[in-house]
Structures
1.
Amino acid sequence: MLFGMILLLAFVCGYLIPWWAACALAFIAAIILGRTSRQAFWSGFGGLAIAWAALALLKSIPNDHLLATRVAQVFHLKYWWAMLAVTVLIGGVVGGFSALSGLLVKKVFENS
């Protein structure tokens, strides 16, 4: 449930609001739906990683990966898909830590 919520929110906010808002939404979703630390981290990681991969591909495929290839060259990567992999990894880590932070904040206030 948490994974699906984060995935949906991250995908929708990718079109409407800045990129960092997905992290705030993962944080809030983990406060509401999170149960364990492992579940929160991996749900946040997977949800944001998949959403960012889908958003990047939806924007990159129509122009035949031209911009992605040029950005990859700036970072000394040979292929556009390597830039996509770096993007997905960064998004996943940020989402995972955001959701984990949300769950830990929830646990602090539950134990008080």
2.
Amino acid sequence: MPLLALWILWVIDWAGTLAGLVAFAHAVMQRADAFTAADRMTKPVWLGITGGATAAMLLFGMYGAGMIFWLAGIVATLVYLVDVRPKLIEVQRGGQNW
């Protein structure tokens, strides 16, 4: 594999891991009742999902035999960041002001 391709894979791998850490840190800092108010799973469940996803991305690279675990981790992280996080922010801010 060319050196440039390896660098690109390395950057994507670590960017995914960093996103997992951000998602886990965000879940830690949120109130537990905000998760149920946003009609999402409970805080401990999301802490387990984001923590497990981050651990999977740290332990397995996005290349090789463990790639399926890395992919599952990035999907779980992106679900939290794209779906759950905006709902939590909306619930804690009191919804739309318009």
3.
Amino acid sequence: MDDTLSIKVTIGNRVYPLTIKRDEEEQIRRAAKKVNDNMKELESNYAVRDKQDLLAMTALYYADRALSNETRGAVIDEDVSSQLNDVRAQLDSYLDNKK
């Protein structure tokens, strides 16, 4: 059974044919909708009508969000790692005292 699916998504009034995994279809369609919604919001808030400019600003917006999430994730990972090390040290101390 073929696990791929051919779909077409429209972004900025242009149709893009894609071959994707079947289980990715909903996410891809939601992502295309988010891009289109962001482009519409930018178009209504600013005097920009060129779809290429709207697409570039949307790409910048989502790239910035992705980088912010990476940074936030790294900080959370460091905090969790530090807390796990503290718990490990407490357990080691407790187990050493039980001997």
